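Re: that chain you flagged

S.,

Sorry for the slow reply, it's been a week of failed gels. I finally had a moment to sit down with the sequence you sent. For the record, here it is as I used it:
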Amino acid sequence: MKRVVTAVVILLAAALVAGVIWLSSSTGRIGDAAPTTAPTPALGIPPRPTDAFPLTVEYVFDGDTIEARMLQPNDVVTTSNPIRIRLIGIDTPEGTPTPECWAEEARAHLSTLLPPGSTVWAAPDRETWDDYGRRLFNLWTDDGRFVNHELVAAGDAEAMAVRPNVAFSDLLSEAQAGAEASGAGRWSACD
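Prediction finished late last night. Pasting the structure tokens below so you have them in one place:
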């Protein structure tokens, strides 16, 4: 009887260890296993919308403007020619004709988030064109990060509400307040 109890205890312990190993490798919480899904957006930060469409980044002009190409035209973008995109709700320092403080850092951060050749996901707000012939979109990285928010939260951009494209203006304003309070990016480097 004592042997049977010992054998059952050993089997239960082995099953418990196997379950912990399996659980940790499938969730990416313990050990070196990577998560099997895209990162979950932080509380209040919108995930990529289901109606967002993919584009291929061709060039990063500055911290708030890129050029990208639509591979499959859709109802919003009907050309496969490169289009210039201005990120909605943010403004970064100008790089030309005379570079402003933090212009190059903002451009470098956007280039890191959206390097040429990468996929970016775009979603419009209410208006999709600005007065300079650029398309107006909110952008998400291929792994689901909200680019407009990331730039503001890092102190590379300031929030800028221009009606009617104000869907995320409160979120971006809150991100700017946090960046200013912590002295992130331009908020501690520029006067």
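What I noticed first: The helical segments are 2-27, 103-113, 147-153, 169-182, 186-189.

Talk soon,
D.
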